[in-house]
Specification:
Blueprint (H helix, E strand, L loop, with lengths): L2 H8 L13 E2 L10 H10 L3 E4 L3 E3 L7 E7 L2 E6 L5 E7 L4 E2 L1 H5 L7 E4 L3 E8 H10 L2 H23 L4 H16 L1 E4 L2 E4 L5 H7 L4 H13 L3 E4 L2 E5 H16 L1
Antiparallel strand pairs: 1-7, 2-9, 3-8, 4-7, 4-9, 5-6, 5-8, 10-11, 11-13, 12-13
Helix pairs in contact: 2-4, 6-9, 7-8
GO molecular function: DNA binding; DNA-binding transcription factor activity
Organism: Deinococcus metalli
InterPro entries: cNMP-bd_dom (IPR000595), cNMP-bd_dom_sf (IPR018490), Env_Response_Regulators (IPR050397), HTH_CRP (IPR012318), RmlC-like_jellyroll (IPR014710), WH-like_DNA-bd_sf (IPR036388), WH_DNA-bd_sf (IPR036390)
Length: about 250
Amino acid sequence: MTLTQRLLSLMRLRPAPVPGGVWHLTGTRWSAGLTDEDMQQIGAVCPPRPYRKGERIYHAGDPGGTLYILLDGHVKLSRTSVLGGESVITVCGPDDFFGESFLTEMATTQADATCLSDRAVICPITREQFLEITRRVPTVAILLASILATRVHELQTRLESLSQPVQVRLAQVMLDLASRFGQETEAGIYDLHLELRHEEIASLARASRVSATQAISAWRAQELVLGTRGHYRVNVIGLEHLIEELQLDALQ
């Protein structure tokens, strides 16, 4: 049973207040360390709320101080660039956390959070609610501390990847999205259902839209990435080999 099914089977789904920020933790799988009783206690303090595709969870500049736990669906975190374009920070999926102002005590949020899937279910948690949750379920604080500790190394690795060639960064983004949100349909082949345009994929890799379009077109010819926005078929093994080749070429 998924996290959403566990929560929604233990409580009635009803609206809860919004606000938030930019900080995020992805791929946490934190709920695996909680029991159904723990989930019931969390849901009693902060009931989940549904969102529709394109709906904003919060805008940059909204009041901060809220942590968001994504139970189901996908959410895009983005900023508006100085030129007025959109810069995608990350895509969050089930079991991910986001909301920078929750930890930093910033007065306002620093990014936009938008529902990317047809439907998303999110638990917004204020600091006061979080303290109540940790009182009822002490395991939550331990899990969050453990997750934060493991993210230090991952952040360092991500910063180091910015020095990699553009094609490597783009391939790493596709691998990350496929591993987190895709479904393996055959050995090394993942079906990825995610509403991302080429410019959004480029933004995740800190590359230009032209670079992303050229790379994806080349990968399509090599049958490494097939399909288009909304449905990609990703050859994970092939992309991993491509990254190795590109990194070796860069060293020569």
